[in-house]
Amino acid sequence: MRHFIIPTLTLSAICLIACSPKNDYQSIEGQTMGTSYHITFQGGDQDPAIIQQTIDARLQAVNQSMSTYMPDSTISKFNRLPSGQNIVIDGDFAQVLQNSQHIYQASQHAFDPTVYPLVELWGFGSKMNVERLQAPPSEDSIASTKQLVGLDKVQLSQIGTNYQLQKSVDGVGLDFSAIAKGYAVDVIANTLKNNYGVVNYMVEIGGEVATSGQNAQGKAWTLGIDTPTIDSTIENRQTITTISQPKDGTLHIATSGGYRNSLVYNGVRYSHTINPVSGKPVAGNAPSVTVLHDSVALADGWATALTAIPYQEALTLANANQIKAIFVVENADKSGFDIVKTQALTN
């Protein structure tokens, strides 16, 4: 699973970089969730400063709800909560949890926001330990930690308009970093539409993107997927393929990949993503998976699920769930990369 503090920038918004806004298009940017956001939109008479204040306040509310790096956030309070006790959660938290529960079930538990104890055990979390694979945790440690993993150990209830949450096992914790950035993109897009009547926009947070309508050139927004080159950076990244939004339509897209956060042990490259089922780092997974879905939150969660398991299993899982996905995988002679699209994307 990914964490707020380590953004995975694998999707580049070509028109944000290459197409300077003109006419009445505006651009604003800021910081959130340990990364940056960029927004380009046709604003008419709207003051971009006022729009940005609204967006920043909305993002702050999402962070206050779900950031594991804020000790007073709702999610941090829940993670410290003993089993059997209830905590009141907000609508944002409840929606992200419900999205997570859906992907958890549909992905056969490949996506699981309770995986955080395993991430910490392997040294890939807040206490990063790059040498961890040199002395990996014992099978007993993995097995005992896995007892804290499983979204079925978290119970959501609703009383009237209020949502409550509790855990059935002490030590269970949630980490929504593999879906919250996508949700935040949805939040900004909805703010632009519902608060300001904006139809033409592109919203990006840490590589997760929502677009609608047309860009400043009157054309469909075009997004680039990065080549998953080991140790590449934002400055030297290259585009391997592009995706265009239907003109006057919408696009919700997220990319996940471990190639910027991986290591080699005994000749095998391991992602820092932990498979919640095996309890171990993933080897043999696709370096990059891009998902198109009804919302960026669902795209974000599914992209993580499909990188948390070996590539062939992920491709089978995506096809079984009719997920629109693009896998970028190393070709047979290891001289480059192949692009593999799921059936839902090619039909």
Question: What would you note in describing this structure?
Answer:
- There is one protein chain.
- It is built from 10 helices and 17 strands.
- A hairpin with a 6-residue loop joins strand 16 and strand 17.
- Helices cover 30% and strands 27% of the residues.
- It is α+β, with helices and mostly antiparallel strands and 347 residues long.
- The N terminus is likely disordered.
- The longest helix has 19 residues.
- Its cofactor is Mg(2+).
- Keywords: FAD, Flavoprotein, Magnesium, Metal-binding, Transferase.
- It catalyses: L-threonyl-[protein] + FAD = FMN-L-threonyl-[protein] + AMP + H(+).
- It is an enzyme of class 2 (transferase).
Distance between the termini: 30 Å
Strands of the widest sheet, in order across it, are: 2-3-7-8-11-15-16-17
Largest sheet composition: 8 strands, antiparallel
Radius of gyration, CA atoms, in whole angstroms = 20 Å
Question: Tally of extended strands?
Answer: 17
Overall geometry: globular
> Are there runs of 5+ residues with pLDDT below 50, and where?
1-10, 12-21
Question: Averaged pLDDT, please?
Answer: 86
Strand content: 25-35%
User: Which structural class do the helices and strands define?
Assistant: alpha+beta
H and E order = EHEEHHEHHHEEHEEEEEEEEEHHEEH
| Number of helical elements | 10
Helix content: 25-40%
Keywords: FAD, Flavoprotein, Magnesium, Metal-binding, Transferase
Enzyme class: transferase
EC number: 2.7.1.180
Cofactor: Mg(2+)
